[in-house]
Amino acid sequence: MTQQILFYAFAAVLVASALAVITLKNSVHAALSLVLTFFTAAGIWILMEAEFLGLALIVVYVGAVMVLFLFVVMMLDIKPESMREGFIRFLPVGVIVAVVMLVEMLSLIGLKSLQALPLPENPAIAAGGNTAWLGKALFTQFLLPFEIAALILTVALIAAVTLTLRKRSGVRTQKPSQQVLVQRDERLRVVKMASEGPKNGDAA
Question: DSSP readout, the chain?
């Protein structure tokens, strides 16, 4: 019963934070709401005994991608004198998100320690753990969808780099293909000049 209550509570927080991501006008507030969305989704996965997926979501997205995105949003096109004001302005939303995440963590810890959850029905999961079962299923039964997803992500990465490196007027860009072909003689010129002795007026 406690697990079901936590599931509905996490689901409500997840829907509310996801709606905040697309409705808030402030990009920093939206990024903080997305952090809370990912963390709550990870909590739901942990409730469903998919601990590996939950921890992977926290480490990869919350701990790396979203933090990097948040720093880029806060530091891009912001003058140094207004940076301190920005931190103070975004502090209440950050505190709210941190408190909600802390409550979720304490709820999960209390559930795991006070309630003995039933063992999974799948004997393979019960024998080797859900991480081993997930890896075996991913590279055997779902190998083709996994490879297709990897291909889609690769194409998206190449497309993002291509769009970023497009020629734009007024912007200085680098051309790596020309940089690697540069020879020493093209970049370095040795100039020989005749040495001149001290003039009479400069002599000590």
Answer: -HHHHHHHHHHHHHHHHHHHHHH-S-HHHHHHHHHHHHHHHHHHHHHTT-HHHHHHHIIIIIIIIHHHHHHHHHHTT--GGGHHHHHHHHHHHHHHHHHHHHHHHHHHHHHHHHS-PPPPS-HHHHHHHHHHHHHHHHTTTTHHHHHHHHHHHHHHHHHHHHHHTS--TT-----HHHHTT--HHHH---------PPPTTT--
Rounded to the nearest integer, the mean pLDDT of the chain is 75
Question: Could you tell me if residue 90 is inside a domain?
Answer: yes
In the chain, the number of structural domains is 2
pLDDT at 152: 93
Residue 41 shares a structural domain with residue 136? no
pLDDT digits (tens, 9 = 90+) for 133-180: 778 888 888 889 889 988 998 998 888 788 776 666 776 777 777 777
- Please indicate, yes or no, whether residues 133 and 155 belong to a single structural domain of this protein: yes
Domain span at residue 133?
A: 125-165
Report which of 31, 37, 28, 27 is spatially closest to residue 87, judged by C-alpha positions. Answer: 28
**Does residue 114 have a pLDDT over 80?**
no
The pTM score is 0.56
